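ping. complex inputs:
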Amino acid sequence: MKEDVRLMKGNEAIAEAAIRSGCDGYFGYPITPQSEVLETLMEMRPWETTGMVVLQAESEIASINMVYGGAACGKRVMTSSSSPGISLMCEGISYIAGAELPCLIVNVQRGGPGLGTIQPSQSDYFQATKGGGHGDYRMIVLAPASVQEMYDFVFDGFDLAFRYRIPTMILSDGVIGQMMEKVVVTRNRGRMSDEEICRQSGDWALTGRKANRQRHVATSLALEPAEMEATNLRLQAKYNEIEQSEVRYDELMTDDADYLIVAFGSSARIASETVQMARKKGLKLGLLRPITLWPFPSERIADLAARMKGILCVELNAGQMIEDVRLAVAGQVAVEHYGRMGGQLFTPGDVYEAVQEKLLKKRRH
Amino acid sequence: MKEELIIAGFGGQGVLSMGKILAYSGVMQGYEVSWMPAYGPEMRGGTANVTVIISDRPISSPIAHEYDTAIILNQQSMDKFESQIKPGGVLIYDTNGITHHPTRRDIRIFTIDATAEAARRGTIRMFNTMILGGYLKVRPVVTRESVFEGLKKSLPERAWKMLPANEEAVRVGAELIKEKL
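pong. complex structure:
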């Protein structure tokens, strides 16, 4: 069969993949630069084909709580928004994490803080990987660097969410959301039945109590501290397992590299061109791209750091992922930051200059 | 083959859709493509630009440092992008509304009076495909057949009745473009 290749915006790819991944419900509220997710879903009218519910809620807070409700019923549910909207959802995300429910959240980041700008940014790294909401919780965070990955990570995100009963986030940005690239449209899986959910992730969902089983409760509330601590210990054990098994990253020309760039998402795309520019000029530069921002590829970065002369973190923010890189590197080598903020982008040439300035010049002094 | 192109002008001139047609044409020929808009809060009347990259190899950065070609459709874009063209590259512009003409000597400069011609023909909405035709005359990165297929792909079915007029505009654009010597 001939491959189904289409030209799509990242946001359109999210919508297409949602329907094809057997999503039961999407709940969202428009915000630039991700509005095409909801628009595309509305245009495709999946409620007439797969039965998927698409609903524009009255706010982001309502959206995430609808997701909470759908997730509790064992449904494949999702929402998407951009930075300020995700901030509004953080309370709900913490509740979903506490109640150990699966869901997919897409953040097509824009510049902040506050209402900020509508242009691309990566300044929600902290929010995505360190909490955002309250309590000792984690989300699995996937960082796509292409429109194809926007598509693929919807499938992966739902699978991970259900495997671990954990909220999973696709942390994208205005570059990947708005750009068009070729996408190979693959797979088409149906929505899951209650029985399939049980088979896949256990009998936990609120599917209506039958005579032969205990009632299921989805809650994040446990007033008894011992009970709440037990919940926390269970969560931590799960997070440990995820850290052991689900780390993903990609590498470009790291084998013989003297210097390393660490970058994710759109920054990694831009920096990969920088690596090629540097190689043409004889500078042995490599790139490590974390695909999962949590769990973070700390071990791999520590291994690589041992043979590097310098590391540059390239991010569209003031320096957020650099904190995790420095923890991983543990002082083996200097780790510098290069970034733009507020919706400004850098070019491959800008990153090359930063490599010269921050890694090479500093060493000479 | 790798073409890094910027199309820049006012919102409403069809800047983004011109890029989209070109990107689709690249897909039709089996090339890798990326289409990256500098999206803004403005719609009609504000500035709009899009970076289109067409390559026979996977595209690393969708953001270009310098451009092989710039298609410039207003003065603001001329001021911003003339300096970002690679030496030996191409600048194409519509003279309508341009008060400060380009001054670089290390690039090839072309003019295309598409605004005037489209107005004369009463087909102002074909303005962007006329420009596209001119561009392809100078930089034949994709075949005219691929462009016609790309046009069809990028237009919704209800607009297919406009295809012949658009195809004609591509042909007219190719005749309209002139090198500025």
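Chain A has 13 helices and 14 strands.
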